[in-house]
Design goal:
This protein is of the alpha/beta class and 307 residues long. The protein has ten helices and twelve strands. The chain has helices spanning 36-47, 83-91, 100-110, 165-168, 186-189, 191-200, 208-216, 220-244, 259-270, 291-306, and strands at residues 2-7, 11-17, 23-30, 55-59, 62-63, 70-71, 95-99, 119-125, 129-135, 138-139, 249-252, 282-284. α3 crosses α10 (291-306) and α7 crosses α8 (220-244). The chain is globular and about 60 Å long.
């Protein structure tokens, strides 16, 4: 059995996971956001009944592989904290940590919709967008611990020469991204960003869900917004597919519940990639809220496979 925790900005989800994906002793406790000792104490208490077992963590953040330092924007007390080292000192147990989007992709590759695929790029479409890349059943490590972050690159760029006013008004604005860069795909892609894009495109203030519903009924303004969204998202994700060679793209997050949107994005991607496919590449993920825990469990399965 494998001790696992899925740590987000609201809750720590904890369980003992069997190699076949069954969970036992599942518990959820609020995440202490501003108190590092309380945060570490919560994990120590959750693990206490299993003193000799390693702990495997999926976290809404990134662990630098060289320093062990955690960067987690939604969990302030972990900023610049070597979490694994602290937990090892407190409990004596080995600790392995990975990004939650990477763990999602890993779980779908082992237990979910992507089982049997060698190259898997998992996509999160939620408040923001994220992803993880799995090759041969393992997370592909990235520079500084970052991989799969297809939403953070300046895909919306200023024109190289000045444009007249009419032409300039057709360009998507250079919105500032939370990562510090302007023009990231994430600035127009997630749920809140789509709502902002809709306003810029001439629409009225609406939720992303209302925009999707209007789009499906043929509303012209919603159609314009989604045409822009699909154009940028399709191009961005097609670039990822061409680079990684992924044969399936599991999709999770709140926006994935809009089935027609996922289908439309799949069409936009397949129209832009180099290889023709007869079936969909984008598939709605199968594991739901269990993906983080199961992905953390896969970290333990990977270690066992190497022993």
């Amino acid at each position: 059995m494998i001790l696992c925790a899925d740590i987000g900005g609201s809750f720590i989800d904890f369980a003992v996971v069997h190699p076949d994906g069954r969970t036992e002793h599942r518990r959820s406790v609020p995440t202490p956001l501003d108190n590092a000792p309380a945060f570490i104490g919560a994990l120590v208490a959750l693990c206490a009944p299993w003193p000799d077992m390693p702990l495997h963590i999926a976290i809404a953040g990134v662990e630098c592989p060289d320093t062990g330092i955690i960067h987690a924007a939604n969990i302030p007390c972990l900023q610049a904290l070597p979490l694994a080292a602290h937990l090892h000192r407190e409990t004596g147990r080995a600790v392995r940590i990975a990004n939650d989007a990477d763990c999602f992709a890993l779980a779908e590759a082992h237990f979910g919709i992507a089982k049997g695929h060698r190259n898997v790029f998992g996509v999160i479409l939620g408040t923001g967008i994220g992803g993880g890349f799995v090759l041969d059943g393992r997370i592909v490590p990235g520079l500084g611990g970052v991989t799969g972050e297809w939403g953070h690159a300046p895909v919306v760029i200023p024109p190289p020469v000045p444009l007249d006013q009419e032409a300039a008004e057709t360009l998507v604005p250079l919105f500032r991204c939370g990562c510090g860069i302007s023009g990231c795909l994430d600035t127009i892609a997630g749920a809140r960003a789509l709502e902002r894009l809709h306003l810029w495109a001439g629409g009225t203030p609406q939720t992303s869900r209302a925009i999707f519903e209007a789009w499906q009924t043929g509303d012209r303004q919603a159609g314009r917004t989604l045409d822009i969204w699909l154009s940028y998202m399709g191009a961005g994700l097609a670039h990822v597919i061409n680079v990684t060679g992924s044969t399936i793209v599991p999709v999770a997050g709140g926006l994935s519940n809009a089935h027609a949107l996922v289908d439309a994005l799949d069409e936009a991607v397949r129209a832009r990639i180099l290889t023709t496919t007869s079936g969909p590449l984008l598939r709605r993920a199968a594991l739901g809220a269990d993906a983080g825990l199961l992905g953390a469990a896969c970290l333990g399965l990977d270690i066992r496979a190497q022993e």
